[in-house]
Amino acid sequence: MEKMLNEYLEKMEKYLRPVAVSERVDIIKEIKSEIQELQSNGMPAEEIIERLGNPKDLAKAYLGDLLAKESRFSWNRFLIVCAFYSVVGFSGMIVIPCLAIIAPVFIFCGILTPILMAVKMISYIFALGIPYVENFGIFVGGIVTFNPIVEFIISLVIGALLCLVGRGAWKLLVFYCKKISTTASNLSI
Amino acid sequence: MNIDDWKSQIKRGTLEFCILLMIRQQPSYGYEIISTLEKYPIIAAKENTIYPLLRRLLKEEYITSLWQESAEGLPPRKYYSITDKGLEYIAAMSVEWENLINVINEIKGE
User: Fold this and answer.
1) Mean pLDDT, to the nearest integer, of A154-167?
2) For testing the chain A interface, which of B16, B35, B46, B72 should be mutated: the one with the most A CBs within 10 Å?
3) B82 and B62 Cβ atoms separated by less than 8 Å
């Protein structure tokens, strides 16, 4: 038999791994029988493969029916499900609250920083003497003091960075949740 | 109007019946069943539907299977034949089928 067709059967065999060996052999034998039948009818290998469709899909068609029919208890499966939920439970206790706090707080700070600095700058430029603005500022160990205008420009950069971090945390949170729900649905086929 | 959707639902519901009827006519092998079905677009189905379906019917003991060597140059074929349980199942399905046809005719008012 041609290499292409053999590869097809090998792939199918790989995807059929959850099936018991004797049954798997029988499934492959039956598909092989059809392939040979089609070949003897003069159908080229490409057409045969096109007719049978993706080996993964064909294998899955068997698996779907099998899993729906046989709800046999398997320790392997049980352990995988246990491990999954333990990891998710523990990591979720830390990851989700952390990210859920980090994301909004960072974004809030990112917006607040330039606003406060703008207030200080305006107060400085127009000499308004707004109380407490001297408490805002960029303090580098009390050695260097910046001009409020420079401080405002620096604060814009810092604000942008904080917003980026907040947004990153938010995306990470969404990704984490999505990943968990898809994994969970895959586990309970 | 989406008639294809409805047709595929009919197919899903009746394919099992059709395959069992075909196997009752004469013991058949997978490819033979698929090529016969191909002649009738309303119930035509591909390998990825028929083979798993046959396997399920085997498990439920409506049919049995037997590998048979064929003539020279041809591969061995897995022939499916009907069991007594399968015959009972066909009889029960036939009753329901008649019933459905009658109901539809009655509702249509013919």
Assistant:
1) 92
2) B46
3) yes
